[in-house]
Amino acid sequence: MAAKTFTMTAAGKAELEAELEQLRTEGRIDIAEKLKVARSYGDLSENSEYDEAKSEQAKIEARIQELEYQLENAVIIDSVAGDHVSMGSKVTVVRDGKESVYEIVGFSQSDPSNGKISDESPVGKALMGASIGEKVTVEAPIGTLEFEIKSID
Q1: DSSP-derived pairing of the beta strands 98-105 and 116-118
Q2: Which member of 24, 31, 53, 102 has the lowest number of beta carbons within 10 Å of its beta carbon?
Q3: What is the pTM of this model?
Q4: Whole-angstrom distance, CA of residue 72 vs CA of residue 19
Q5: What's the half-sphere exposure (Cβ side, CA atoms, 13 Å) at 81?
Q6: Residue 82: CB atoms within 10 Å
Q7: Helix segments in the chain, DSSP class H
Q8: pLDDT tens digits for 41-91?
Q9: CB neighbour class for 27 (10 Å; exposed up to 12, middle 13-18, buried from 19)
């Protein structure tokens, strides 16, 4: 079975690599210290600090594995500044008289609260390939949204 690929920008890949390095070093060191302290409290069968530290360790290790898998299967898409929205584009749109700026990124990089939307999201899909001045309609869970593309960087 073929591995899933993760499209991302070069900057997005660098962010994931930095997070992975932080988890491998500082994250593991911190959790090892918490486990050491929790063990010093004695009986592990009734030690909530130990249970909590083990749970945190499992989360860190799972995130490390997830990041390693994403990076091993990353496909870097270079942003091509131009007339059409593509991966890595920063798009200024107008909706109901209000301007918003979205950066089109891969799924693993998406952070809607910071204006980074996935190319796989409804809005991202609708914007991909569109050009300046074009009106784009998106069917979203909250209803139909219409955006006009003001600029593409």
Answers
A1: parallel
A2: 24
A3: 0.73
A4: 15
A5: 4
A6: 11
A7: 10-22, 28-39, 48-72, 122-127
A8: 877 777 888 999 999 999 999 999 999 999 999 988 876 556 889 888 899
A9: buried
Task: Tell me how far apart the alpha carbons of residues 2 and 48 are, in angstroms, rounded to a whole number.
Answer: 41
Q: How many CA atoms lie within 13 A of 114 on its CB side?
A: 5
Q: What is the pLDDT of residue 68?
A: 96
Provide the token pair at 73: 């299967």
Please tell me the distance from the alpha carbon of residue 26 to that of residue 127, in angstroms, as a whole number: 39
Please name the helix (run of DSSP H) or strand (run of DSSP E) that holds residue 150, with its range, or none: strand 143-152
**Cβ 41 vs Cβ 47: under 8 Å:** yes
Q: How far apart are CA 19 and CA 12, in angstroms?
A: 11
Considering the chain, what is the average pLDDT of its residues? Answer: 89
Strand partners, 75: 7
pLDDT of residue 140: 81
Start-to-end C-alpha separation, the chain:
37
Tokens of 40: 């010093």
Continuous segment of H or E residues that includes residue 99: strand 98-105
